[in-house]
Amino acid sequence: MAQIEQSDKGGKKKKGAQKKMQIHVDFTPMVDMNMLLITFFMLCTTMIKSQTLQISLPSNEKVEQEQQNKTKQSEAVTLILDTERDSEGNVKVDPDSGKPAHIIYYYEGKAEVADENHDGLIDNSNLKVEKFVGNENGEVQGIRKILHNRNKQVLEKIDVLKTQWKNKELTDEEYQAKAKQIRNDSTLTRPVVIIKAGPNASWESLISALDEMQINQISRYQIDNINGVDSALIFDYQAKNPRK
Amino acid sequence: MGKVKIKRKSTLIDMTAMSDVTVLLLTFFMLTSTFLQKEPVTVLTPSSVSEIKVPVTNYSTILISPEGKVFLSVAGDADSTYSTEKVRAELIRNAVSEYNKTHSNKIQLTNEQVAKFSKMNMFGVKLSYLPEFLDLPQIKQDEIISDMNNDMVGIPVDDNKDLGKPNEFQIWMRAIYNSSNPNLEQAIKSGEGIAVKADKDTPYDVVHNVLDNLQTLKMNKFSLMTALKTEND
């Protein structure tokens, strides 16, 4: 391991001259061991910490009809989430985008169910279908576009704030406080989004829906259970538009 | 004849600098690392734009496997008065006494079993099976708990609105809340104390069952664990 090298240059030695010694310590095994330890720590650590999304649900207690807050019809948007699955329950993949095939049925205002000619099909169903697309070429797409348009007044005001914040005219706290104030400003037209998920809808689709609320700065949304009218609408939609 | 002298050159490379670097790296990893927690199933969480981080202390995780099995884990305070192990020991005592109140087949745990439980990161077997499970060696335990077809694995979460006769999940969650750690209690109240972790492909009705149970327990605020993504995805 450690070597002591004697240098005897010049042949003749003077008497009484000190011997020059060079000490070499071989660090190779030490480096080997360190590398092993580093590998161990690298494999055993988690660098990325999970993020969380905070939500609060209403309590399960029965609420009196009069005490319930009724949403204004003009403000309500109902999203019903569903995910296409194959016969084994695995999530299908959308062939166009390569993303999981989540479907969002939505209607604005109240669900319209009227069967005037009694043929078992719903006339004038206001149910429409969208997908989670995100942004494309900097433009909002899919369900985000619909929610974006519904919450335009809030988003425009927040955009102004954002540019101020980016130009360092506002501190982080000021920006957050002001943004919150705008989100909850009742003088602006803001939608109330009701998110419902079908039994097959994947967890990812629900999170994506909650995510859209954050992205579109929607302050009023809730998660609700699917009801008979919603299922009837979806059945009707699927009957009219069979999947290829 | 004159000999041709070949000068021997030493092939030694000075490893000191290399060693310095590796030791530095090692120190960095040792100081920043938090070890991966062992979980019965690996779940891929969906991603969201939310940037709130998971707390390090005082929270409990509800892990939901795609099959609908539920597992729980608890992290205590950094302060040793309410350390994770103490919280877990308190938690299991609470849960067992609560269980014995409503069931005729009583469970008795030895101190040894409680000590073993307090070392476990994530738990999720039926309470009636717990004493037997705790007596098994570690390897056997890991094998059993990762078997999703085993009936004994997973905390039972059936639909139950009557808190006078709580199901096992409700017993556990209440025990966590009452585990005599005021900081955890505060965190659960504010919604940071409970994190729901489910796979992205899990059907909603499976998760809904758990959320519904939490609502019944009046734990209406909680957080959902997600990975990070950008707005454009």
Automatic annotation (TrEMBL), chain A:
The keyword Heme does not apply. GO terms for cellular component: plasma membrane. The chain crosses the membrane at residues 21-43. Its main location: membrane. InterPro entries: ExbD. It is found in: Cell membrane. Signal peptide: none annotated. Keywords: Cell membrane, Membrane, Protein transport, Transmembrane, Transmembrane helix, Transport. GO terms for biological process: protein transport. GO terms for molecular function: transmembrane transporter activity. It is a single-pass membrane protein; Single-pass type II membrane protein. Belongs to the ExbD/TolR family. This is Biopolymer transporter ExbD. It comes from Muribaculum gordoncarteri.
